[in-house]
Amino acid sequence: MLLTSLYLVCFTVPFLVSFVATGRGDFEDAMRIHNCLFGRYVLFFARPLVRVRCSGLGKVPREGPVVLVFNHRCYADVFFTSLQPRANTNIAVRAWPFRLPVLGRFMRGAGYIDFETTPMDEILEETRDQANRGVSFLFFPEGHRSRDGRLQPFRSGAFRLAAEHGLPVVPICLTGTEKMVPFGAFMIRPARVDLDVLTPLYPADFPEERRALRMRRETERMFRRYLGEMNGSESKGEDEDDAASAASPGGEGADGSDED
């Protein structure tokens, strides 16, 4: 708490004021970059309790906006997303964090995407200008963190956005955060966290028909292969895969279940 207060007093206000005053972007740009830097600040002081290894960061395209896709194992995963190189990144989150007294203000200030209650068509319209300005986007396509550590079926929102705006999808796999804060626990435990960037996927490499759906399926397969979770999952067939995704909580809107 003391370190957080020190950061807010000594860095937050001067950074936001100088960023906007020097014309480097608007207030939401400043807030997104600030929040990313704060995540790195928290992880720095979490050492040596939490050891982090990053691999493949050079695979993230250097030019133009991207759609970053993370698996979700722990409520603290959002801090580790700050280790990817795109600081000005708009994050898609569920509705309830916006209601938190302090965190919610930072999220609203950054213009984060409420994928739970905002219709997908509205999200696509709002993000079009951001993508044109070079803002990247970040999704946890499972929609909620895993209870058992296994990957949950993906929703289509991230891939609809990527297909609509012509942005590459960058899969990034997190492992170890489930040991740092197991499901149902709140205290941090010593752990090693690995962040591995997988091979990016480009919309142009997929047929235009049902492009978002095809990108979603391939990205989920990449995660399952990397995590060693195939175990016949592909043999279930595409129909069963689609049914599982559509049945996940959140209904329509940004989960993109109507895409299927």
Question: Mind explaining what this structure looks like?
Answer:
The protein is α/β, with parallel strands linked by helices and 260 residues long. It has one domain. The chain has nine helices and seven strands; from the N terminus they run H-H-E-E-H-E-H-E-H-E-H-E-H-E-H-H. It has a seven-stranded mixed beta sheet with strand order 1-7-6-2-5-3-4, with helices on both faces. Helix 4 links the parallel strand 3 and strand 4. The longest helix is centred in the N-terminal third of the chain and has 20 residues. The N and C termini lie far apart (45 Å). The C terminus is likely disordered.
Low-confidence segments = 233-260
Determine the fraction of residues in helical runs and give it as a percent range: 25-40%
Using only C-alpha atoms, the radius of gyration works out to 18 Å
Question: What pattern of helices and strands is seen along the backbone?
Answer: HHEEHEHEHEHEHEHH
